[in-house]
Amino acid sequence: MKNPLDSLWGTVIAGFVLTVILYYIVKSVIGG
Amino acid sequence: MEMLPGIYRWIHIMAGVMWVGLLYYFNFVQVAALKAAQSDSTAAGITKHVAPRALFFFRWAALATWLAGAALLGSNFVAAFMLQAGFQKIGIGAWLGTIMLLNVWGLIWPNQKKILGLVQATDEQKNKARRVAFLASRTNTMLSIPMLFFMVAQTHIPM
């Protein structure tokens, strides 16, 4: 499998995906 | 004294713009420019005259950003890094920024010194350094996206 960080846009997309994942984790922690 | 938090925030944002701005310059501009420049043998201009200057401001701006951020957190520093109630969002931002700072000083800069010939390295070591520095830089570009989100979210994005 190709490393998404080898591509600029793969890097940007990975950043947005990570943001969404962390958003839901933090939201679930804050919301209890 | 009451001006200090505002001054810390100002320095934090100013240095952060320089740090992330240069990070985006490396990833969005210089990587592709170097690739193109290698085909007409003009890459030396970038590696000799541009990259060292950009790296100087990049690594010191990273440190200044972190220090000003720590000063801004003040007595809430531990609460943020321990992700205590009310500090989870800024805490995630602070952790991501800290990982990025460690990437700059622990991976990107030591490997760039080999690539730019500031320290002695064999061709094999230079090739390995190129890959490590590239991936660390790309990792920071990826992490900058949620880092900036959570820095903004602490005050401006309800969850």
Structure notes:
The complex is a heterodimer of chains A (32) and B (159). In chain A, 75% of the residues lie in helices and 0% in strands. Chain A has one helix spanning 8-31. The radius of gyration of chain A is 13 Å and the shape is elongated. Chain A has one domain. Chain A has 32 residues and is an all-alpha fold. The longest helix of chain A is centred in the middle third of the chain and has 24 residues, at 8-31. Chain B has one domain. Chain B contains 5 helices and no strands. In chain B, helix 1 runs antiparallel to helix 5 (123-156). Chain B is elongated. The interface between A and B is medium-sized, with 18 and 20 residues.
Topology:
The complex is a heterodimer of chains A (32) and B (159).
Chain A: H1 8-31
Chain B: H1 4-39, H2 43-73, H3 77-81, H4 88-115, H5 123-156
Quick overview:
The complex is a heterodimer of chains A (32) and B (159). Chain A has 32 residues and is mostly helical.
Low-confidence stretches of chain B: none
**Topology order of chain B in helix (H) and strand (E) letters:** HHHHH
| Helix vs. strand class of chain A | mainly alpha
Q: What's the quaternary structure here?
A: heterodimer
What is the C-alpha radius of gyration of chain A, as a whole number of Å?
A: 13 Å
Query: How many strand elements of chain A?
Result: 0
Structural category of chain B is mainly alpha
Rg of chain B, Cα atoms, Å = 18 Å
Strand proportion of chain A: under 5%
Principal-axes geometry of chain A comes out as elongated
Proportion of residues in extended strands of chain B: under 5%
What's the overall average pLDDT of chain B, rounded?
Answer: 96
Tally of separate domains of chain B: 1
Number of helices of chain A: 1
Largest sheet of chain A: none
Flag low-confidence runs of chain A: none
**Helical residue percent band of chain B:** over 70%
Large-scale geometry of chain B: elongated
Total domain count of chain A: 1
| Most extensive protein-chain contact, per-chain counts | A-B, 18 and 20 residues
State mean pLDDT of chain A (0 to 100 scale). 94
